[in-house]
Amino acid sequence: MRASDAERERIAELLREAVAEGRLDMDEFDQRLERAYTARTHGELEPLVQDLPAPGTTVAPVGASAPAPLRGSAANWPARIGGTATSKGAFALWGGFERKGRWTVGRLFTAFAMWGGGDIDLREANFEDREIVIRCFAIMGGIRVVAPPELNVEVKGIGIMGGFGEGSNEGGEVSPGSPRVQITGFALMGGVGVDRKRTKAERRRLKEEREAELEERRRRGLEGPDGGGRKRL
Fold this sequence. Notes:
Elements: H1 5-20, H2 26-38, H3 42-49, H4 77-80, E1 87-93, E2 96-99, E3 104-114, E4 117-121, E5 126-127, E6 131-139, E7 142-147, E8 152-155, E9 158-160, E10 163-169, E11 180-188, E12 191-196, H5 200-223
Parallel strand pairs: 1-3, 2-4, 3-5, 3-6, 4-7, 6-11, 7-12, 8-11, 9-11, 10-12
Helix pairs in contact: 1-2
């Protein structure tokens, strides 16, 4: 059976949980994570978690008998809080910077862009602490922060002949256990925007869930309440 993006992401979350609990060392975690994201079939995914317990269970199955997939970027906050920061700041002058993918945000992160721009993507990031402050300063430039809808984000910046505020929002509720991220600073003749947006993999997973639910409702409707199919008139 071919593996979907949602199944690969669920296996990745189980591996992150295992390394957070000390069941895997970092070298083994990195090897398994790489194999998980390149796996094409269930047969390639299953060996990666066969010796690991799923959260709240004693096994970690893949496929139809597996537990419901963890939802959104909030799936594993405990494993994503703590550890050493991989970046505490970014600078752009007549150029740009980018922080995205799997990186660890410092408890105080400072970003500066002048006649340039930068992107700070928090959707797959880890966090050095439960309380994070991101300071953004844009002078005739722009900084874009992208956060998952489940993350607790507070925007307190100031725009001077520019803009500092929240942009697009895909909707969703802040989840319990989420880090608290405060975004402050100012934009002078420039802009700082904060968007709430899911990753492509998460959007695909939600789409697959909706399609599967519609198909199940359609099937039940054809079978009728007694499971024997609708009677012809």
